[in-house]
Amino acid sequence: DCISLSDVSCYFSLLEGGRPEDKLEFSFKLYDKDGNGVLDSSEVDRIITQMMRVAQYLDWDVTELKPILQEMMREIDYDGSGTVSLGEWLRGGVTNIPLLVLLGLEGDMKDDGQHLWRLKQFSRPAFCNVCEGLLVGLRKQGLRCSLCRFTVHERCARRAPHNCISTYAKNRREAEVQAHVWVKGGCDGAKCSECQRKIRSFQSLTGLHCVWCHRKIHEECQPLVPPACDCGALRDHVLPPAAIYPVLLVSRVMGGLPGQGCAPHSPPGPPEPVWGCQERQDSQRDNGGTPVEETPQVSPLPDTHPLLVFVNPKSGGKQGERVLRKFQYLLNPRQVYNLQQGGPMHGLDFFRDVPDFRVLVCGGDGTVGWILDAIDKANLPHRPPVAVLPLGTGNDLARCLRWGGGYAGEDLGRILRELEGSTVVQMDRWRLEVLPQDPAAEGDPVPQGIINNYFSVGVVRGEGVGHRWGRVCPPGLTVPFGPPQDASIAHRFHVMREKHPEKFNSRMKNKLWYLEFATSETLFSTCKRLKEHLSVEVGGVPAQGWGGAQGALPDLMCPPQVGGTPLELGGALEGLAVLNIPSTHGGSNLWGETRRAPGPSVAQPPSVTDSETLRSCVQDLGDRRLEVVGLEGVLEMGQIYTGLKSAGTRLATCSELTLR
């Protein structure tokens, strides 16, 4: 079997953003080979065959799928002519959930009350919430809503009621008290929160679970539950619908107003929120001076810290996608943002005036840097503490803050409960300035695809005191940057991942690629005789008459230093690492461990280069110092990572560093 170029073109187009109606019309014209405006039986069969291929690629159980698709296409032929017109295709397609899923058109968050379907494989018996029949099959047997866990057969999806959760209050009455939202089933043999007896669900659809507090109860125990929902164990993080109230509600009539072309059977739609717009003089998005969208009225529950979650689906192979879906269920979906769909500014704008909110970044070190940069640009009234769920490859920030080297599928509810007890710590952030030797010289433009590995705050796993949130210090960047060999390896890794992303779909594969590039760097040693090409000075005083770059913020600028102490670089050194955190290269501590001396700490001078004094210097995230380490090559870096060597060569600690 082969897929024609037109099919490939179709599915590339379907992956782009846009209305389902537009995408359906595009696919109709693409499959209408003779251009007569209708799909005949052969063209319909071709569509069914292509959808079967997509279902197989998605590991869907296709044993019973083809007859369902054939019946589906027959139902779209409303006039029974044996052909499908464009009008019939659009009319039937927009309400046909399995068709939209297989064509890649279903997946974006819809209006309140509409389900967000995804194909699901169940590891234990599951039942349809529409017909209450058993879902059968060896692979992905049905569809489940990511927001409320409503589950259906493919054939029952069109009959599913629009009873999904509301993410905001539609009126003042709803804003006063948060009610439970019960969904039948989904209890998986759990104990009833009221009577503590097990909820058996192996033979039929039994039990109820609340989408907001996640209580699971017997149906007969429902009268025992108070009508007001307290949002359960995750109350500290959740923004319930009752806490979000639009500035303005307007009624929207689907299909137009009466007398203006409205379809005779088009019922009025639900109220649609309209967020009021006004200019903000004090805080503009990206400092751009254009009006920003005013956030709705948000009133969190008392004594809570609503959580704003950013997820990078590309991080950690497919981990990011799973984490995104789980957080959409555990929290209000309006608290969870996919960074691949518009970046972080929409979420920061929505939470701008929310008191005491926190940020959780689900991704790697680069993702954390992206969010911190966005927080700087957003000019928020209060800078929120930021936590990290490590989904990247190295995850050095999470490692040094004692949150582990990577998320391995742990219960997200437990992680959120741990975040609730976290405390705030400060962490240094630094500004890196690259200046030409000749100020009048015109340098090359900064590449748009520059590789960065900067980050700031995080959550620290404390000993005996729970966990600790990190808070951003004065605006800037935390920039741990490594030796030239590291830059060479990282550049090759970045170029290869951009060219072949399918080869980098897991943390283990990424590490193997790093190993391959590091091995070749060891063999060729492209960074020998470092001291012949680099001079290093620590300390110094700002140069006279230097006022900073044009248009820059004065408190972020680092003027060039003069009168610093030069560092002596040994002939065997091939690399220089400048550190701000005690972890790099996926867990290596290049500075090494240093025991803190008993008693009060002794104040150190601004710069330390004496080898004896450096032995007692301890790394600290918030000491306003950088650590400078010399390395003899990639082999030494590997020895430190594996524990065969304790550390590199300590060269200095300082607050100012100049490289020439």
TrEMBL record:
Entry EC no(s): 2.7.1.107
Domain Phorbol-ester/DAG-type: 114-164, 179-229
Main location, first listed in the record: cytoplasm
Region annotation (Disordered) ranges: 260-305
CDD domains: C1_DGK_typeI_rpt1 (cd20799), C1_DGKalpha_rpt2 (cd20890), EFh (cd00051)
Domain DAGKc: from-to ranges: 302-436
GO molecular function, one term: alkylglycerol kinase activity
Start and end residues of each EF-hand domain: 19-54, 64-99
Family annotation (InterPro entries): ATP-NAD_kinase_N (IPR017438), C1-like_sf (IPR046349), C1_DGKalpha_rpt2 (IPR047469), DGK (IPR037607), DGK_typeI_N_sf (IPR038199), Diacylglycerol_kin_accessory (IPR000756), Diacylglycerol_kinase_cat_dom (IPR001206), EF-hand-dom_pair (IPR011992)
Keyword terms: Acetylation, ATP-binding, Calcium, Kinase, Lipid metabolism, Metal-binding, Nucleotide-binding, Repeat, Transferase, Zinc, Zinc-finger
Catalytic activity, as annotated: 1-O-hexadecyl-2-(5Z,8Z,11Z,14Z-eicosatetraenoyl)-sn-glycerol + ATP = 1-O-hexadecyl-2-(5Z,8Z,11Z,14Z-eicosatetraenoyl)-sn-glycero-3-phosphate + ADP + H(+); 1,2-dihexadecanoyl-sn-glycerol + ATP = 1,2-dihexadecanoyl-sn-glycero-3-phosphate + ADP + H(+); 1-O-hexadecyl-2-acetyl-sn-glycerol + ATP = 1-O-hexadecyl-2-acetyl-sn-glycero-3-phosphate + ADP + H(+); 1-O-alkyl-2-acyl-sn-glycerol + ATP = 1-O-alkyl-2-acyl-sn-glycero-3-phosphate + ADP + H(+)
GO (cellular component) term, any one: cytosol
GO BP field: glycerolipid metabolic process; phospholipase C-activating G protein-coupled receptor signaling pathway
Compartment(s) of residence: Cytoplasm, Cytosol
Record Pfam families: C1_1, DAGK_acc, DAGK_cat, EF-hand_7
Gene3D superfamilies from the UniProt entry: 3.30.60.20, Diacylglycerol kinase alpha, EF-hand, Probable inorganic polyphosphate/atp-NAD kinase, domain 1
Pathway membership, UniProt: Lipid metabolism; glycerolipid metabolism
Top-level lineage group: Eukaryota
Protein's job: Diacylglycerol kinase that converts diacylglycerol/DAG into phosphatidic acid/phosphatidate/PA and regulates the respective levels of these two bioactive lipids. Thereby, acts as a central switch between the signaling pathways activated by these second messengers with different cellular targets and opposite effects in numerous biological processes. Also plays an important role in the biosynthesis of complex lipids. Can also phosphorylate 1-alkyl-2-acylglycerol in vitro as efficiently as diacylglycerol provided it contains an arachidonoyl group.
PANTHER family, alphabetized: DIACYLGLYCEROL KINASE, DIACYLGLYCEROL KINASE ALPHA
Family, similarity comment: Belongs to the eukaryotic diacylglycerol kinase family.
Quaternary context: Monomer.
Record-given protein name: Diacylglycerol kinase
